[in-house]
Amino acid sequence: MKKIFHSIVAILTVVPALVSCDNFLETEPVDKLVPNTFFQSEKDLELYSNSFYQRQVPGGLAVVQSDEMGEFTSKNQSNNFIAGAYSSVDEGAWNWSDLRNINYFLENFDNEAIPQEARDHYEGIARFFRAYFYFEMVKRYGDVPWYSKTLATDDPDLYKPRDPREAVIDSMLMDLDFATSHIRDTKDNVSSLVTRQVAYGFKSRVCLFEGTYRKYHEELGLQGTANELLQEAAVAAKAVIDAQQFQLHNTGSPSTDYRELFISENPVSEEVMWAVVYNNALKRWHNITWKFNSATYGNRWGLNKQFVNTYLMTDGSRFTERQGYDTIQFVREMENRDFRLAQTVRSLGYTRLDGTPAPPNFGYTYTGYHILKFSLDDSRLDGISESFNSIPLMRYAEVLLNYAEAKAELGEFDAGIWEQTIAPLRERAGVDPRIPATVDSYLQSVYFPNISDKFLLEIRRERGIELCYEGLRYDDLLRWKKGDLLEMPWEGIYVSGLNEPMDLDGNGTPDVAFVETVPDNQVAGVIYFAVDGTNSVLTEGDHGHIVWRANEDRQFPEKKYLHPISNTDLVLNPDLGQNPGWE
Q1: Would you tell me the crossing angle of helices 196-216 and 226-243 to the nearest 10 degrees?
Q2: How far apart are CA 556 and CA 483, in angstroms?
Q3: What is the C-alpha to C-alpha distance for residues 548 and 518, in angstroms, rounded to an integer?
Q4: Best CA proximity match to 545, nearest among 379, 420, 410, 367
Q5: Which residues of the chain are modeled with pLDDT < 50?
Q6: Coil, strand or helix: which one is 391?
Q7: Are 346 and 370 spatial neighbours (Cβ–Cβ below 8 Å)?
Q8: DSSP assignment, residue 397?
Q9: PROSITE patterns recorded for this chain (predicted)?
Q10: 165: closest CA among 561, 574, 572?
Q11: Gap between the Cα atoms of 537 and 533, Å rounded
């Protein structure tokens, strides 16, 4: 009897436990996002879409630093891709997490309880970010697998071959067409959100990249489709222009208007369409000022003389047509130039926030063209990560340049489009905006020997100057098939002679001296730059342009227009195949 009693007690104990276990197994986890309990309201869609920004929008430094790959930048040394024995072993493995995050949303968001307009808006946001993800992939690898679904671990598509770049671009444009049709057309005055106009602007960027890439990369055999993409680029850019939500920031102060776009805490939303927003009160900071003003923390970036030569005089004439332009010393070189030059590199009369004169510092740059754009004036920020200026990701100025270039590549550029695009950019910069009468022989000989269209040359000049250090230059070189420019010497300012102290800010006192050996008795306030004959040389031996890393072997053969597929990915899926030249 006692044994039976114990059995009954055991059964009464176990059965409820089993029932409880069943309920537990059917209960959704309270700390996880699951479709049955999430995606119930527009607020849920908004909350999830915030993850696209958090995961995919680059930090401010990453935006600026990507122009380190541009030909106009000198730095400590080139990376292994440009001046080393780079191979598929050095290439990092692909990461599809951001794409999976987007595709998961697209598979689960479509709840009929949420108004259709809201669902369309957030679907547009998700598809914008999918195109944003794939744009980076296509630029880097060309052909890549296109995935529009989440993949289980046993999905055979994990091991499929890459899809052709034209198929991937077509899919991206379908996403962007949906985005430009359905994302709400409400201007974001904080410039932190993707809006319909941002989607149009991004579409113009994608189509201009791919259209020119196909035009100049004959090896692809896709030239017949280039003009269609260039038309798409022009139409998308024109849509932004016609919407009239944005305009150039021009208060009539050419010496400050341009730089205000890059040092303001709140994005200048009349022109900045999309930005990485920082905020001092919220302690959302970055370290760009520190990077540009440190001998060790950054790479001592500087512009190269060849690029600085492309800045026009304020009267619209070409600096490179002045007699003896190549041997003019720094102070005279900076005089009467396009006002953007003095807002991009330290120039005459620049002072820090406390009024301290701050000429170009050869402790922080190797060429003398010390980057100023994006740096704040408070010298306290030179050693801490507390810069709080917002960093533009897309500006109306780029849209104007996209429109101008697409029309020029199509052979449809004329004086009217000049007045609508290039002229207002030069007017803001204090430069006479008249149309040049002739082709610029300097631009043609040093940069673009195969271009004879004066308008296209001027558009490329304007794009380089206006968008300098905004993360677009390397992509421009790729699509123009001008990777050979990355092999050019890193020339700096003209030095009249060794051991001759030079004034760099126009106040009549010396700031730098180029020497073979740093003297024991140094002049206060003078930085002594040792020309060692190996890493640094003067082009004429004891005078001439300072050239940094003259001993570096920079190479950009055909294969480098694409990166290799990593060894890791090829081991996992041999059907991906390797890019040409990297086998």
Answers
A1: 150
A2: 6
A3: 18
A4: 367
A5: 1-21
A6: strand
A7: yes
A8: H
A9: PROKAR_LIPOPROTEIN
A10: 561
A11: 5
> Model pTM?
0.93
Q: Which of 396, 401, 563, 370 is nearest to 469 (CA)?
A: 370
CA distance 533 to 515: 11
Residue 269: half-sphere exposure toward Cβ, Cα within 13 Å: 15
pLDDT reported for residue 11: 38
Instruction: Report the distance separating Cα 114 and Cα 501, nearest Å.
Output: 71
For the packed helices 116-141 and 42-56, what is the interaxial angle rounded to 10 degrees?
20
Whether residue 357 contacts residue 521, with contact meaning beta carbons closer than 8 Å, is answered with no
Beta pairing, strands 527-530 & 512-515:
parallel
73 forms bridges with which residues in the sheet?
303
CA–CA distances in Å: residue 165 to residues 140, 221, 346, 480: 11, 12, 42, 17
The pLDDT assigned to 365 comes to: 95
Determine the angle formed by the axes of helices 196-216 and 116-141, rounding to 10 degrees.
30
pLDDT at position 30 is 59
Contact 545, 492 (CB under 8 A): yes
Question: 415: burial class by Cβ within 10 Å (0-12, 13-18, 19+)?
Answer: exposed
Element (H, E) at 108: helix 97-108
CA distance 336 to 557: 39
Among the listed residues 247, 264, 253, the one whose alpha carbon sits nearest the alpha carbon of residue 427: 253
CB contact at 8 A, 389 and 376: yes
Q: How far apart are CA 232 and CA 211, in angstroms?
A: 9
Helices (H), 114-164: 116-141
In the 8-state DSSP scheme, what is residue 132?
A: H
What is the 8-class DSSP label of residue 387? Answer: B
Q: Which residues of 33-67 are buried (b: 16+ CB within 10 A; e: fewer)?
A: eeeeebbeebebbeebbebbeeebbeebbebbbbb
The β-bridge partners of 536 are 548
Q: What is the pLDDT of residue 37?
A: 78
Listed as own residue / partner, the contacts of 102-110 with beta carbons closer than 8 Å and 24 or more positions apart are 102/52, 102/126, 102/129, 102/130, 102/133, 103/130, 103/147, 103/148, 103/149, 103/150, 104/150, 105/48, 105/49, 106/130, 106/148, 107/149, 107/150, 108/35, 108/38, 108/39, 109/39, 109/45, 109/48
Express each pLDDT in 493-540 by its tens digit: 999 999 999 999 999 999 999 999 999 999 999 999 999 999 999 999
The candidate with the shortest Cα–Cα distance to 411, out of 230, 242, 235, is 230
How far from chain centre, in Å, is Cα 52?
18
Q: Of the candidates 187, 222, 215, which has an alpha carbon nearest to the alpha carbon of residue 201?
A: 187
The burial of 517, by beta-carbon neighbours within 10 Å (0-12 exposed, 13-18 middle, 19 or more buried), is given as exposed
Looking at residue 27, its pLDDT comes to: 61
Strands of the sheet containing 536-538, edge to edge, are: 490-495, 544-548, 536-538
Judge whether 459 and 405 are in contact, CB under 8 Å.
Answer: yes
Render pLDDT for 451-499 as a digit per residue (tens, 0 to 9).
Answer: 999 999 999 999 999 999 999 999 999 999 999 999 999 999 999 999 9
Left if phi > 0, otherwise alpha if psi is -120 to 50, otherwise beta: which for 201?
Answer: alpha
In terms of phi and psi (left: phi > 0; alpha: psi -120 to 50; beta: otherwise), the region of 501 is beta
